[in-house]
Amino acid sequence: MKKRALAIFTAAALILSAAGCNQGGGAASEPPEVQEDGTVDLTGTSFTIWSPIYWTGKVAGFADNEAWQEMQERLGVTLTFQQPPAGQEVDQFNLMIAGDDLPDMISTGWVEDGLFVGGLDKYIDDGVIVPLNDLIEDYAPDYKKALETVVLPEERKNFYTDEGNLCGFYAISPYEEWCYNGLLYRQDWMDELGLENPKTFAEVENVLTQFRDQKGAKNPLCFPSNGIDGFSGMFLHAWDVGPGFYNDNGTVKYGPIQPGFKEYLTLMHDWYEKGLIDQDFATRDEESLKRLMTSGESGAVIHSADTVGAWMEGISTMMGGNYVSEDGTKEIQYRLKTYQKRPPFGFFITSACESPEAAAAFLNYGYTEEGYMLANYGIEGETYELTGDVYTYNGIDYPAIEYTDKMLNNPDYPVLDAIAKFKMHIGPFIRFEHEGNPAMNMTNAGIRQAWTEGAGTDLVLPPVTLTAEEGKEAARIQNQTSTYQDTAVLEFIMGKRDLSEFDQYVADMQQLGIDQVTAYYQAALERYNSRPS
Amino acid sequence: MKVLVKLKNDIVKHPWVYLMFLPVAAFYILFCYVPMGGAVIAFNDYSPRAGIFGSEWVGFKWFIEFFRDIYFFRLMRNTFLLNVYDIIIGFPAPILIAILLNELRARHYKSAVQTMMYMPNFISMVVLCGIITDFCITEGVVNDVLGWFGMEPVNWMMEQMAFKPIFIISNLWQYAGWSSIIYVAALSGVSQELYDAADVDGCGRVKKVLHVTLPALMPTIVIMFILRLGNIMTVGFEKVILLYNPLTYETADVISSYVYRRGVLEANYSYATAVGLFNSVLNFGFLLLANWMSRRTTEQSLW
């Protein structure tokens, strides 16, 4: 503990000294005037922005990003970025909140709204961030319009908290972005063995058996190391059960204690005994999965299509697996789901901002056509050209583009660096992932689209939030239940514990209080459902 | 008063020494003593915004929560046992190495051996645990060797009984060489005359080790042992979380790894501080006990 305290103290000292350099960058002191056309002249204003970076690479931070630079030039705004080192975002954020020197705006980065531990409402009550409900009326009309037109009515409430606060400027996707996680087979082996994409458990078993017998794959199927695919609930969803908390027609249930979960364990145990599932799966990390796949020791994996596609480049393309069930006809109702609200890198205006109105007007830019074209694709004529076509989503037309070589084949900036240099990846703007992500190739896009369309999402729990008190108690209980469950699931699959003890396992889980946590989520779901839409 | 006068005289006499000491003192006060005050958050429900003294006071809530945890005894047992085994096996090793090095006469060979033994200490923990895992999985080199004796391959990383031996043996490899430095240094101060005198008395090599080398090392050994006991309830979580998995929780899960997992669910600084404070109190108790026993038996002690 002494070490941790020491680290925090040192970091605090560093932050304080760094913050000292920033005092010149205050915002405009008077609320800006809204002009007749609804825009706000921001010339001469300046803001400080705290934001994590997208990823580490050639480009150090947003200050070096040409889209951010262009945005400042166009609006006449000066931005000062405070960017915490990768991996220290949460600590740095808490130190910043604890200190008195807040920036004008905060972006959450990949941690999303979870960066505000205890919920956004609490931070509004504590006076850290300001609610936007009224601000966007006059100062962010395009964001307001996007919330009303781009966002479908049933998804609108995701942008608001249980208490009805609109807290952040979030990336808005005009559509559901394709799901990225699922079952993948080696295409070349499937072709050589003349196998169809399986639809039933028996067919999957046949594929894996042939991989083992004909292709010498010692561990045909790579398996998630805790025994459950937490993203898509692979195989488990065939029994209408989700991998964690899920929504059974308005009732929240916890998947790993349902009768269907026993069926799942029985099948997985059977495959494990037959040597079809990686015998050492509990001890694998990302690197070993990569080795298993590239060395031909395994031929199937439950993972991200983009990631595995990159691993297997030059070896084989991957085939995106169908959703499977006992008889092959069942409609699956659980998979990875994204919403129109894309929470990573949401932007929040703090109470330290001298003119929240100006900040709102500034953040509004990403929802104007000029703004989202710049954010998504970079600068016209440099990184992209208009093709003249349009995409239409929900009755709204968006211009179609083609990237130039500066974005796609830049010798100085490989694609991930090109993204960080020439465009914004995700943040306060209308986001076109399918059209605007230069890193997505056609094979993966096809696989991801099929996964998205191949299953429904009736069982998926919407993005509910626990209150601060519920969250604390849930964390206490879940640390015990997940410790117990993780061991039990592995033991069941590996046959170290007999499945006749499943009922005992469920009783133990209940003893540890899992039903209490389920009740918290039930309450959260009810609060979510009663949010005004 | 007398002490102060003495100190003043000393400062006047050696001003430069005290000037050089100033930054060191400032360092310890600023970075070791001041942050200790932060431990009070163990008794409140700390929220960064409300600050250390502004947060709600909850008394012993976090301590009680920890004691009531169903895994409390398992965590205490694993933490304690890992340390006990590490002391039994890991503590004598560097002493043995230092004595053996001391017996080496070929200088180049000696420094080559020393350098090689220091190396593992500098390997990053992540890399090291990756190597250990690769050695111990089903297709790993450990099973290749055991296969020569007709044993069926086993994934040792998934065996409860294997975790502690893997942990302790790899610790030995990592730290034994490095930890021997302090003993080697202590031995460099032993006068050659003592050995010469022992020669005259007709001592062989073993006798010289027993009657010259070991007694010379004794004060260092005692101090190191007391300090080691002061850490008896501490196991760093890095190595544990890199080596364990749910199948080996029974023998591998220690206090720090359990608290770390909870930290992933929720940034509860107060809970982590409470557990840390409880740990420190236990460690401090062991330290006092060891110091007292040592003073009674060997007349060596920290104070």
Helix/strand layout:
The complex is a heterodimer of chains A (533) and B (303).
Chain A: H1 2-20, E1 46-50, H2 66-75, E2 78-82, H3 89-98, E3 105-107, H4 120-125, H5 135-139, H6 141-149, H7 153-156, E4 168-172, E5 181-186, H8 187-193, H9 201-215, E6 221-222, E7 245-248, E8 251-254, H10 259-273, H11 286-294, E9 300-304, H12 305-311, E10 318-320, E11 341-349, H13 356-363, H14 369-377, E12 384-393, E13 396-403, H15 405-408, H16 415-422, H17 433-436, H18 442-453, H19 468-494, H20 502-511, H21 514-529
Parallel strand pairs in A: 1-2, 1-3, 6-9
Antiparallel strand pairs in A: 3-11, 4-11, 5-9, 5-10, 7-8, 12-13
Chain B: H1 2-13, H2 15-33, E1 44-45, E2 56-57, H3 61-68, H4 72-90, H5 92-103, H6 107-118, H7 125-136, H8 141-148, H9 160-188, H10 192-200, H11 205-229, H12 237-243, H13 249-252, H14 255-265, H15 269-297
Antiparallel strand pairs in B: 1-2
Helix pairs in contact in B: 1-2, 4-9, 5-9, 6-9, 7-12, 9-11, 11-15, 12-14, 14-15
What descriptive keywords fit this protein?
heterodimer; A: 533 residues; alpha/beta; D-Maltodextrin-Binding Protein, domain 2; four-stranded mixed β-sheet; 13 strands; disordered N terminus; B: 303 residues; mainly alpha; MetI-like fold; two-stranded antiparallel sheet
Q: Tell me what the CATH architecture of the largest domain in chain B is.
A: Orthogonal Bundle
State the order of secondary-structure elements of chain B, H for helix, E for strand: HHEEHHHHHHHHHHHHH
Name of the CATH architecture of the largest domain in chain A: 3-Layer(aba) Sandwich
Terminal Cα span of chain A: 46 Å
